[in-house]
TrEMBL record:
Keywords: Cytoplasm, FAD, Flavoprotein, NAD, tRNA processing. PROSITE patterns: GIDA_1, GIDA_2. InterPro entries: FAD/NAD-bd_sf, GIDA_C_N, MnmG, MnmG-rel, MnmG-rel_CS, MnmG_C, MnmG_C_subdom, MnmG_C_subdom_sf. The gene is mnmG. This is tRNA uridine 5-carboxymethylaminomethyl modification enzyme MnmG. The lineage of its organism: Bacteria, Pseudomonadati, Pseudomonadota, Alphaproteobacteria, Acetobacterales. It comes from Roseomonas haemaphysalidis.
Amino acid sequence: MRDMNFDVVVVGGGHAGTEAAAAAARCGARTLLLTHRLDTLGEMSCNPAIGGVGKGHLVREIDALDGIMARAADAAGIHFKLLNRSKGPAVRGPRAQADRKLYRQAVQALLAAQPDLTILPLAAEGLERDAAGRVVAVLAADGTRIGAGAVVITTGTFLRGEIHIGETRLPAGRVGDAPSVGLAVAMEALGLPMRRLKTGTPPRLDGRTIDWAALEMQPGDAQPEPLSWMTERIGNRQVECGITSTTPEGHALIRANLHRAPIHSGQIQGVGPRYCPSIEDKVVRFADRERHQIFLEPEGLDDPTVYPNGISTSLPEDVQRAFIASIPGLARAVILRPGYAIEYDHVDPRALKPSLEVRAAPGLFLAGQVNGTTGYEEAAAQGLLAGLNAAALAGGAPPRSLGRTQAYLGVMVDDLTLQGVSEPYRMLTARAEHRLLLRADNAGLRLTEQGIAWGCVGPERAARHRAFAQGVAEALARARAEGGTPAALQAAGIAINQDGRWRSLLEVLALPETDAAALDRAFPWLAALPAGIRTQVEAEALYAPYLSRQAAELRLIEKEERASIPEGLDFAAIPGLSNEMRQRLGAARPATLGGAGRVAGVTPAALAALAVHLRKER
Ligand code: FAD
């Protein structure tokens, strides 16, 4: 038996684990990443794409804290699209389809270049606690004991994972990988509340057997916008996607075989993702729809595999083959690998603090799909936060967290730890009540300074960020100070209401139909601004009136977030709280009065009783 020691040990080399390990090491913690196989570090288990609406916001936030996901996606990207381009900046979502192999290579190269990070191909089988209940070591399958100041578990769909294809069931973490059973047992022994969820993936097709000429093709953006702020330009050749759809014949085939679909036959008990349903689910739930759109996404530049986005399924293989043949353009398409569903254990995230540390097992952090989320970006963002916190704990620094007014990452962690999950959680812009503030375009301005203070942002990004932030501040100050009377603006070719009121340039920029060329002529310094700075000035102009109206509300939220609730508070001992309120608050264990107000079902009367109690205790 070997014995090793690290400040931070991360278990799992998926999107959460790689980001956690990189973040802990960036903070200076001596970090070990344990994962089954080195060649699957950065593996995309499902769709070959990073970002999108809501998810793209998370990727930009990861980037703002100097994480690796956005840089890897830029290095591997073969089709970029800014989703919702015609809508306001708050809901625009940057997305990149990636060459699956290049993405893995990029993640592996970024990790290899990270000082203070060691990676070993070992499975974790157990956890060791000290007499005080603190997790102090990871026990590996080969008998190695690895002592740790903090441990982060990011095992994705692997805990007691089981694949379903029709009537066939197979223990697996994902296709081709064994499940993690020993670790699941060890986590259960810690008393963690474990539940079952499921997710699924579509069959992969051989692109050489698709009739592309019969399909509508969709190019990416003519000028691909990088996901990372540190990427100067996208270097890869860009490819198009095909668009097709299911047919009424295909739907009839699925209906006739529902008794063989594990999610309908009762073979699968776990709940699947609402926003990413299987095709058999869609056919049942939206029975009146004759077609469902399918995007045919190439998985790589030198790989013929195509990912048909929109038809994840666990129907038996023979039904999958007949169904694929019913789709226009796919009559002769060969299936390289059938679709499948996977059921796995996850932990009820209400067992976690806002730092993602397990409340009942100090020293242990959880991140990613194991917390009941779905998606690479959700996993990576949690991984980054858990990695920062593991390094902080190991180094004796206070916990790090982000609030709902600061980041989508803050919204997600708040939702998870207070409300728990009843189905795989996915990031959506609708979940963020302050989304005018939390834009994908201003993630750096919102978070990089905080990241510098936490020690997770390198000097190159820090210098670039500070120069940019100063440029934005100067441009905004100038746009507030300069302007003109209606007569002067009119004379410059800028149409404006002739009410005699002087207007700042910021106000003029917010007007919907202002002639951009006339503005640039009247204020040549505006035209000379670097594009990124101008975007910030325009977004500020657009949203400033709404944001100043929200200012009082934001101040109140911040005050409530400062009213912390002691960790071991006995809710049963608070006078005036009903049994139901005690139960709800006891299950979620909010860290602040603000958090208590967001626990589903907690009444204003219960909040008032809690506030009075906290005031008395202080
Ligand atoms: P993973 O990426 O799964 O990584 C887990 C890592 O942990 C792996 O590297 C594994 O080797 C390692 N590991 C596990 N146990 C141990 C151990 N004991 N010791 C050492 N290492 C260990 N997301 C969507 O958004 N939409 C979808 O449609 C979708 N469909 C999916 C379909 C399938 C079949 C699967 C498998 C996943 C799907 N996902 C989907 C989810 C997406 O893949 C995950 O959300 C994301 O990969 C989670 O990242 P993670 O880091 O939490 O876990």
